Amino acid sequence: MYNIMTIDLEEWFHANYHEDIFDTNKSYEVRVLDNTYRILRHFEDNDAKATFFVLGYVAEKHRNLIEDIYNAGHEIASHGTSHSLVYEQTKNEFREDVYKSKVLLENIVQQPIKGYRAPSWSITKQSLWGLEILEELGFIYDSSNKIVNWA
C-alpha cells in the first residue's frame, strides 16, 4: 500500500485566520524547528517519505532545516514566500512571491522545485490565473485545491 504525506512547513503565526495575527515588527516564539525535527524522526523510524511545502519565510530563517529535510530524502516544494492568500494578491505580486520562494529553495537543495501549494488553499475560481503563472515559472504540479489538476 502506498500513501501520500504532505507537510505545509510554516510557523504557527502564518495562519490566515485574520489580518492582524502576525506583525512583522514583533518577535514570536519559533516552533517550526522542534516540531519538524520531531516529525522527521517519526518518518525515519517508519521509513516514510513526504513532500514538504516550504514557506520561503521559513527557508530564509532556517536554511539548515530545509537541507536536513532534503538530505533525509523528502521532496521540497514551494508554499510561496509570505503566506499571502493568492486571491488577495495581484498577478505581479503573486508571481514575485512564488518566484522568490522557488529560487530560494532551488539554491538550498540544488534541484528544481517542481511543486507548489497555495497558502490556505487560496487558488480558487477567482484566482485560477495563478495556475498560468505557476506553469510559466516552471512548476510541474499544483497541490492548492481539490478541483483543478493542470499537471
Structure description:
- The chain is α/β, with parallel strands linked by helices.
- The protein has one domain (6-13, 30-142): Glycoside hydrolase/deacetylase (TIM Barrel).
- The protein is 37% helix and 11% strand.
- It is built from five helices and five strands.
- It has helices spanning 32-45, 56-61, 63-71, 91-109, 129-136; strands at residues 6-9, 51-54, 75-78, 115-116, 141-142.
- The strands form two sheets. A three-stranded parallel beta sheet has the order 1-2-3. A two-stranded parallel sheet has the order 4-5.
- Helix 4 (91-109) packs parallel to helix 5 (129-136).
- The longest helix has 19 residues, at 91-109.
- It starts with 5 loop residues before the first strand and ends in a 9-residue tail after the last strand.
- The mean pLDDT is 86.
Write the layout of secondary structure elements.
Elements: E1 6-9, H1 32-45, E2 51-54, H2 56-61, H3 63-71, E3 75-78, H4 91-109, E4 115-116, H5 129-136, E5 141-142
Parallel strand pairs: 1-2, 2-3, 4-5
Q: Going across the biggest sheet, name each strand in turn.
A: 1-2-3
Class computed from helices, strands and strand pairing: alpha/beta
* CATH C-level category: Alpha Beta
Share of residues in helices? 25-40%
- Can you summarize the main beta sheet? 3 strands, parallel
Beta content: 5-15%
Calculate the terminal CA-CA distance, rounded to whole Å.
24 Å
Element order, helices and strands?
Answer: EHEHHEHEHE
- Mean of the pLDDT scores? 86
Unreliable stretches, pLDDT < 50, 5 or more residues? Answer: none
Q: Could you give me the name of the CATH homologous superfamily?
A: Glycoside hydrolase/deacetylase
* Number of beta strands: 5
The gyration radius over C-alpha positions equals 15 Å
CATH-derived topology: TIM Barrel
Just name the CATH architecture: Alpha-Beta Barrel
Number of continuous helical runs: 5
